[in-house]
Automatic annotation (TrEMBL):
This protein's pathway: Lipid metabolism
The protein's name: Phospholipid/glycerol acyltransferase
SUPFAM superfamilies: Glycerol-3-phosphate (1)-acyltransferase
A GO BP entry: phosphatidic acid biosynthetic process
Signal peptide: none
GO molecular function: 1-acylglycerol-3-phosphate O-acyltransferase activity
Transmembrane region(s): 12-40, 60-79
């Protein structure tokens, strides 16, 4: 009986703490919008220097948020292969099981660019961070690809979720080809990152308040760099993109199955 009461109290706390965390996330976005980024924008420096500052602010903000969720008992996490990240000219390709994947990744990568949905440019809590961190819109696909390639070739780090949205549990990965195009055109470092979450939470099929019976465990497994030579040699380029995209789909489908109960 006492055990059931403790479990119930723990569940109620985690439900409250989850709502509190997202409230803090919203408040933090508002503070960045109204205070932090306006100050950064008037500091002297080139466009690139200002973007770098913005990305670091987002990094530390997300690091705080993940730390908060961990400290108040919502989640646990582990990272395997962190030393393989944070390299210049690195394209990080990841799967997308939960709502907080991009937050988790950026919290461990100090200087990273990413692709943002066009609709988020109109979100008052996100717009300021997007603009000041120099994130790239997916509104114009050709422009998006060109900007991503240029960023990587200039030595920047890029995070891409080729699924474009959160994964659907039980179904194979389905990737859009943009990541494959960017990878082959830039011809820089390509590193796969597999994210897994158990028990299932914050997925596309679940609302934020549909929390699991215990703390969820988010794991990040950084794979070995993917050699691009054999794909780049394929002609025409459209076939190379198709084959590389299929390679990525197969890789992440296998990795997702491998880690689906990780942390159980």
């Amino acid at each position: 009986m006492a055990q059931k009461i403790i479990q119930k109290l723990s569940y109620c706390w985690r439900l409250f703490a989850t709502g509190f965390s997202f409230f803090i996330f919203g408040v933090g976005g508002l503070i960045l919008w109204l205070v932090v980024f306006p100050i950064l924008s008037i500091l002297p420096g080139t466009r690139l220097q200002k973007v770098n500052r913005g990305q670091r602010v987002v990094h530390y903000s997300f690091y705080f948020f993940i730390g908060l969720m961990h400290k108040i008992g919502i989640m646990t996490y582990e990272i395997n292969g962190l030393e393989k990240l944070n390299r210049p000219g690195q394209l990080i390709i990841a799967n997308h099981p939960t709502l907080i994947d991009v937050v988790f990744l950026i919290s461990w990568i100090k200087q990273a660019n990413c692709i943002v949905k066009e609709s988020l440019w109109h979100n008052p809590f996100m717009r300021s961070a997007i603009l000041n961190a120099g994130y790239i819109s997916n509104g114009d696909p050709e422009k998006m690809i060109a900007e991503c390639v240029a960023w990587l070739q200039s030595g920047g780090t890029m995070i891409i979720f080729p699924e474009g949205t959160r994964s659907v549990s039980g179904k194979p990965c389905h990737f859009q080809r943009g990541a494959a195009v960017i990878a082959l055109q830039a011809n820089k470092i390509v590193t796969p990152v597999t994210l897994s979450c158990y028990p299932s939470t914050l997925t596309k099929a679940e609302h934020w308040y549909q929390i699991p019976e215990r703390r969820f465990h988010l794991a990040m497994h950084v794979g070995e760099d993917i050699a691009l030579d054999k794909f780049i040699r394929i002609q025409p380029a459209s076939i190379a993109v198709r084959r590389f995209n299929q390679y990525l789909q197969d890789y992440f489908t296998q990795q997702r199955e491998r880690y689906k109960h990780y942390g159980k």
